[in-house]
Amino acid sequence: MRRRIVITGMGVVTPLGTTIHEMFQNLIAGKSGIGPITRFNAKSFPTTFAAEIKNFDLAKFVKDPSPWKNCGVNSCFAAAAAQQALEDAGLLDNTKVDRTRFGVYLGSGEGIQDFNNMISMIARAYNSETRSLDCVKFAAEGLKHFHGGHEAEQELHTTPAHLAQYFCLEGPNFNCLTACAASSQAIGEALEIIRHGDADIMLTGGSHSMIHPFGVTGFNLLTALSTFKGDPTKSSKPFDLNRDGFVLGEGSGMLVIEELEHAKKRGAKIHAELTGYCSTADAFRVTDSHPEGRGAIACIAGAIKDSGVAIEEIGYINAHGTSTQVNDRVETLGIKKVFGDRAYKTPVSSIKSMMGHLIAAAGAVELITCIEAMRTGILPPTMNYETPDPECDLDYIPNKAREHKTRNCLSNSFGFGGQNTSLVVSAFSN
Amino acid sequence: MVVSLRRAVITGIGALTPLGINGPSFHKALIEGKSGVRGITSFDASGLPIRFAGCIPDFDAKNYVDKKDRKALRVMAKTIQLAVSGAQCAINDSLVDKDKLDRTRFGVIFGAGLIASELNELADAAVLSSSGDPIKVDLEVWGHKGLEVIQPLWMLKYLPNMLACQVSILHDAQGPNNSITQSDVASILALGETYRLLCRDRGDFFLSGGAESRINILSMTRHSLFEDLSTNNEHPEKACKPFDKNREGMVIGEGTGVLAVEELEHAKSRGAKIYAEILGFGAAFDQKKDGSGVARAIHAALNESGIDPSEIDHVNAHGVGCKLADRREAQGIRSALPKTPDVIAVKSAIGNLGAAGGLVELVASLEAFQTGVVPGTLNYENVDPDCPVPVLRASRELKKNCVLKVSMCQTGQCGAVVIRRWV
Amino acid sequence: MATKEEIYAKVSATLIEALNVEEDEVKPTSTLQGDLGAESIDYLDIVFRLEREFGIKIPRNELFPEAVLQGDPDIVQNGKVTPKGIEELKEKMPFADLTEFAKNPEVNNFSDLFTVALIARYIEGKLAAGKN
Fold first, then answer.
1. CA distance A217 to A360
2. pTM score, two decimals?
3. To which H or E segment does residue A256 belong?
4. Mean pLDDT for each 10-residue chunk of chain A (430 residues)?
5. Least Cα separation, residue C74 to chain B (angstroms)
């Protein structure tokens, strides 16, 4: 018999709240976390808005925030969400479980680059006439002005290392950065690590912030972000005909997942069971999804098959729903291909309409949203849904939360490069 | 522990290293005691405290990638170009007929690191929006005029998941695809995850690899601020001294290592050349910073492999050449294997290839299986009682058929893999 | 003022570089997507290079107004561009000859309009307008 894996702890730091309760209440109330960018002066960028986390203070979450003193917000969000998840799971105390059987698998993003320093140094070291950079000058400037501690924390492996070090998690330690699918894929692979027996408990999820000048520059150049000119809270419109790109969000979602017997033995509170996972690649193009959604179809179908849940039993789909033309069309197509007639009877929504796109962290926060939806019997809406798109014709729970009991949810995450991950989470019963 | 009837074998090697292209020439240079650590010539490094590295001379991805696919190279930083080149070499070496592969069961799992932007690409925008004062950039000018002069595909060149994604696109690999970003242990974790995926029936053929190039002005400047680097500019080839009493820090290198990993029956049915079988994998976190994490990763890999420690020919160590890291590793190896086999440290000859390191180093052992000769470790002169492991100095004959590979990083992540020569 | 031939030569050189194709593959009638293998991100790159090459500004959706065809049922029905849609395209793309396309206005054929000659014609128009 395959080992069963349950979720015993959850924590979030999001633009709509820094506790699960606060976030979910805001989601079902249809509130928006999107507003003008305040983190830096974005006034003249094509996109001037994002979903930021305001007034975040790590000291309010962890006893000793000093290990994170050189970190960017990405790592700090992770620490705060992990603290909540471990506390929720009753696992902050070192002596309770074998820490060597307790691992970490995150989908966390890079640290925050020192934009001002770097750009002003390039300007000083660059000769516009010869169109060449004076490396000697740049090195001298860099050695003087870069902060070694901050630079070290930009590396991609530091966030999971901090969590393992601080919370004493001595098991396998992984991080994947598969663009917008990262934290979903991390949760899926963490599930497999426990199924295989490499660990009994995993802290998993993701953390990211790209609300900085380089992030907005990069996405704006690719014309991936919404450049909506009206009220920013109306800018993210997944599945609406007039959607014009995604809106950046930031934050972290963390889960403690655990082998069932292990959880039972220690009398843990069980939130839900993680039943299905699949990842695939489009292997098509760098930014375009495959037009027939081949990768998305394979991964949705694969995750449902892995879960053993019948299609009719999936009562809610938390969509990737980025509010870009291509994603929402292809995702709809993929759902229809896998669900057949059931597609029209299965409610689908995208919480990115309210909190934007948390990039690497999106999948984890969305999975937690599914679990809350099952617990409360209330499905969060897709806000800003006004004009139907003939190619997106499913039940998107438009603009108003809905009471609807379900025992199984599907959560999709698709990323640049053709990375697809789907997860199935189910209400727990013996 | 789940026991799978499926077995994973290595059927192809692609490697671009500071000491040669692909397995045989890399191995030959190691046996001859050559060093790939040399002065940096790809940019003017004279302003840096460290002016040498494990460099690949004259790398040009066009020599590796199909002509029809060359368009894609322009959205790839050097690290990504290395990855697709290494992947092509592994495919070539495996002699697999791609048309006969089930694409949905063809996966790509890579280790990757932070990729530095090429500064010239941002220079026009920087000049427009910077007054020259330190730490003063006019963001209004940047957003308004700067964006217009930056290449629109700029960001895509530097996303760490593009190693595995570009490889999947070039080879139509629609199976599992992951990018593991765990610094120096990334590619060994990628190999471990590949092994797990294959055994749980998620695919039959995988490209498992890693690539990294940090030999550029931005990465070298940044790393010299926070890494424990050797400053032996006078004698670069002597700079990396793993486990030596007088070791003086890490040497940065660049390269890629990619393995074709295949299900045994799949490999047999196409008559593939088999280098080795993967027998076990383990990972852990060295939270106490005493090597106990290294030991636990080794124990897990050994337990799974079912071999007796006496069957190990040599330990292919992380051996980075830093004071604390080498001590931790050596003590971890010693405590897991009290009768410690010979230990080799390939980094002594090529430096630390970061996310590519683990797999490039493993290629040295895979080629030892082929040739029967195990390469020694350079620059090991003075025994350090803090590093109680027998370091192999001179090349010697292969005596046994199993190898243990260890990788770790300074922050504590550890991984270990056991492989056995295919006979 | 550059001649027609000079403009064509520069456009062609730009495409050779952006799409990494051989010189003999680029003919006036070559379609960017079908013949030269362009994908959506390449259009961003082509616009960027043309702007630099000719010192002009090409606003988003001006040269490649594919956004017009995204979903609006008045513009696209059953995979075909409606008469209203054709009018809209004519207005947005004065540099294009839509006669052939209008005969069988399938959305899937829209990309075939974008040939090397069309890009050159667009640039001619831009440069002429800039001069006036």
1. 18
2. 0.97
3. strand A250-259
4. 95 98 98 98 98 97 98 98 98 91 98 93 93 96 96 98 98 97 98 98 98 98 96 98 97 98 97 98 90 95 98 98 95 98 98 98 98 98 96 97 98 95 96
5. 32
Structure tokens at B312: 């190990």
List the single residue in C41, C60, C71 with the smallest CB-CB distance to A391. C71
Asked if the Cβ–Cβ distance from C20 to B74 is below 8 Å, we say: yes
Burial A259-291 (b: 16+ CB within 10 A, else e): bbebbeeeebebbbbbbbbbbbbbbbbbbebbe
Same domain, C59 and C73: no
Cross-chain residue pair C45–B151, CB shorter than 8 Å: yes
Chain B interface includes A253 (CB < 8 A): no
Task: Flag whether B2 is in a domain.
Answer: no
Residue B300 phi/psi, 5° resolution? -65, -45
**Separation of alpha carbons A330 and A290, rounded Å:** 8
Active site residue A150: no
Residues 6+ apart with CB under 8 A from B347: B240, B242, B251, B253, B318, B319, B320, B321, B357, B361
Residue of C15, C33, C45, C47 best to disrupt the B interface, most CBs of B under 10 A: C45
ipTM for the whole complex: 0.98
Q: How many CA atoms lie within 13 A of A358 on its CB side?
A: 37
| Residue ranges making up the domain that contains B135 | 120-154
Known catalytic residue: A162?
no
Q: How far apart are CA B115 and CA B109, in angstroms?
A: 17
| Residues A293 and A368 occupy one common structural domain | yes
* DSSP secondary structure letters along B172-214: T--S-EEEE--GGGHHHHHHHHHHHHHHTTS-SEEEEEEEE--
Q: Which amino acid is at A250?
A: E
Supply φ then ψ for residue A288, to 5 degrees: -75, 140
Q: Which residues of B touch C45 (CB under 8 A)?
A: 151-153
A127 and A19 in a common domain: no
Identify whether residues A302 and A351 lie together within a single domain.
yes
What residues of chain B, 61 to 100, have a C-beta less than 8 Å from chain A?
72, 75
Candidates A320, A370, A392, A409; catalytic one: A320
Same-domain pairing of A342 and A279: yes
**For residue C42, what is the nearest residue in chain B, using CA coordinates?**
B153
Query: What is the four-CA torsion angle of B406, A187, A54, B154, rounded to 10 degrees?
Result: 70
Q: C121 and C95 in contact (C-beta within 8 Å)?
A: yes
Interface of A with B in 40-69 (CB under 8 A): 40-46
